[in-house]
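Hi W.,

Here's what went into the run:
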Amino acid sequence: MAARSLPRAPCDEPEGVEPRFGIERRLFIKIAAALTAAMGLPKSAQGAVAGALQTARRPSVIWLQFQECTGCTESLLRAEHPTLEKLILELISLDYHETLMAAAGHQAEAARKSAMAENKGKYILVVEGAIPTKENGVFCKIGGRTAIDLVKETAADAAAVIAIGSCASWGGMPSTTPNPTGASSLQEILGKPVVSIPGCPPNPYNFLTTVVHFLTFGRLPELDKKGRPKFAYGRLIHENCERRAHFDAGRFAIQFGDDGHRQGWCLYKLGCKGPETYANCPQILFGDAGVGTWPVGIGHPCIGCTEKGIGFEKPIHALAELLTVTPPTQFARPAEEQGKGISLASAAAVAAVAGVAVGIGAKVASNLGKHDDQDAAAEAKRDEKNPG
Ligand code: FSX
Ligand code: SF4
Ligand code: F3S
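Here's what came out:
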């Protein structure tokens, strides 16, 4: 029987994939499918996403760097596969980036000015790093001008402003108490909402997916109250963690290197902040290096790097607050009975957990049947503790 030729969806036949991205079609289709899923869109949107990847005009991007370690840029460029870097650099026209551009001094400043003038109202401003405010901002100056001046000037005519990394999103490591330089977030400096992609460093796929959403639909993705794309920061790490079954069953690592740790048990008692941290790390992983490549996956507790008031503020071994109570209907006791197989190192933790455990019981009782309200309630609770 002669083979029937089936009509093809637009994403099945992307033209010019090799010339534009230098990658094979099959891989391109996979990437388009993954990005569509990452945005929380149905499969039917895959064609539109693939089409935008193929044909969208590269928006001019001005990327400013202030108080930071360049980890945001590094994470973007050092993915295990070169594909991600290629995709990003092919999709945008990176017109100003101090680490990557060849220009220096006056030439670099001229590049920023001309990108702003030529793309007025259309360019995307990406800011990496916190912005110091004490002593009129003298702690970070570029070309003789403070970070405050530069960011305000560049944001004025931008089509979209993105804070990449925790430093720009909420102050990050430079803003840690006592915050000697008055390190502030981009939103605090501009006094208006911006898109925030926190993480130290942030996951490059969350940046790429945000840009692709912008190119596909001409608008930014849906954001939460803190300006974070909901597709990436809508769920607690604890909800999607591969160690969650151990948490529910009461199997915890107590010390680094103990049997529980070696067997991949839950890291809650080692201070994992997954129960109070919103991010998609367990779902999208890091570095394209395969299964388990995220902090908890390789045996380190999440430190809550995406969350203001948790990352770099809350001690690494302090117990996380259990923000939501999701099924099963009953939580395992996170504390052993005193004197049974417990180390000195975890004694303080257990004392703290005992109080938490009472709270868990009360929460379970009051939350049964109210799962729809849980996220809103959890967010309100966190905002109350940690405004801004
Ligand atoms: Fe570093 Fe970026 Fe951390 Fe900050 O990532 S990885 S200190 S979020 O601004 O460069
Ligand atoms: Fe995973 Fe941490 Fe939650 Fe344990 S406490 S299930 S390690 S996120
Ligand atoms: Fe950060 Fe925790 Fe993810 S430390 S990278 S939010 S697992």
